[in-house]
Each structure stands twice: as C-alpha cells, then as structure tokens.
Design a protein that fits this description.
Ribosomal Protein S5, domain 2; 6 helices; 8 strands; four-stranded antiparallel β-sheet; elongated; alpha+beta; four-stranded mixed β-sheet
C-alpha cells in the first residue's frame, strides 16, 4: 500500500471519531436539559395549609350607640367614648353592656365583656313571652305584650335589639317616657327579667300546664 493511501485512511478514521464524540456530547446535553424540569419539579415542595377553621361562636353582639363623653377635670376636659352593646345567643339569654374608653374599639370590647357578665335567661313560650308586662329604668319605661305567630317583632331602637338577640320572634312593644337607648335597653331587660314562666305558676297552683292554659 502506498503512502498516499495510508494518509487517506488515517484522515477518515479521525473524522469518524470526532463525529462520534460530537454526537455523544449532544445526546448528553439533551438528556441533561430534559432532566432539569423534572429535578425542579421534584425540588418544589407542596404547601400544606395548616390553618384550622375556628368554630363560629353562638353569641352575637350588636352596637346600639356610640357617644362622645366629656369629663371636666382639673387640667381641662377629658374626652372619651361610651359604647352600648347588646349581647345574646338568640336562645333565651341576653345582656346589656355599657362601658367607656379613650378609643371606640376598646369601649366596644369592654361593653361586650360587661354585657356577658349581666346575662339573664328569658322564659320564651311559643316564640313570644308568657304574659304582658311593663317595666321602667330611670325616666324610661317599656311595655311588652305577647303576639300570635307571624306578627314579628313590633319594636324599634334598643328595644328591638334586645328582643331579637333574646330569641323572641313575635311580640308587641311600646317605649314610653325617655328616648335614651340605655334606659330603653335596661327597661326591656328588666321586663324580661320579671317574666314568670307558665311552669312556675302551674306548680304553685298545683296544676299542669295544659290545665292552666285551658
């Protein structure tokens, strides 16, 4: 074999080796690029929500009035806020709270705490009250009368708020005297406190509730 033929064979072998190496490198690069999103997806961790839903409280609060109060002191006038809040669970328990503070939010919070301390139990008979009653607080008084099914709450202002949160659905009322929301709320609370259930009256008379009602 001549020298020219040997040189041609060597050149062909070198070019074949270089083509094989380039193909191997390209395949390695493509496989690495294909694996990148898979690695990224593996590295990402799923977020797990650990927040627990708090059970909704049965107690409801309703703000009746927020007023600005001025107190004269030695250095001048001291401004504060007074909040009147009605607290109830619409199942026969209701209370009225009144508190003062330098900020409105703090006054409402203090009034809610005060209202929960003064809770009373209301004797409800067939979505209304057992008997008519009138009570007063300060210069204001409230008259309450039982109502038939479907009448609704015929009341307004603080009286309506107290009756709604107490769980009464049908009642007639009339606010007399002072128009102060605090007096009206306290008078309504006093009237509900003085109600006598049919069971107590029947026990005192030695009768059943059916005999008493008939």
């Amino acid at each position: 074999m001549t020298e020219e033929n040997k040189e041609v064979e060597v050149v062909e072998e070198v070019t074949a080796e270089t083509t094989v190496e380039t193909t191997v490198e390209t395949t390695v690069e493509t496989t690495e690029e294909a694996d990148r999103p898979a690695r990224r997806s593996r590295s990402r961790k799923k977020r797990i929500d650990t927040k627990e839903e708090k059970p909704e409280s049965e107690w409801k609060e309703q703000v009746v009035q927020i007023s600005r109060v001025t107190k004269v002191v030695k250095g001048g006038k001291k401004l504060s806020f007074r909040a009147i809040v009605i607290v109830g669970n619409k199942k026969g328990q209701v209370g009225v709270g009144c508190a003062k503070a330098a900020e409105v939010i703090i006054a409402i919070q203090k009034a809610i705490v005060e209202g929960r301390k003064n809770l009373i139990t209301v004797p409800i008979f067939k979505t209304t009250i057992p008997h008519p009653i009138t009570a007063s607080s300060g210069a204001g008084s409230v008259m309450l009368r039982p109502a038939s099914q479907g009448t609704g709450i015929i009341a307004g202002g603080a009286v309506r708020s107290v009756l709604e949160l107490a769980g009464i659905e049908n009642i007639l009322s009339k606010s007399l005297g002072s128009n102060s929301p605090l007096n009206a709320a306290n008078a309504t609370l006093q009237a509900l406190r003085e109600l006598t259930p049919f069971a107590d009256v029947a026990r005192k008379r030695g009768l059943t509730i059916a005999e008493l009602l008939n």
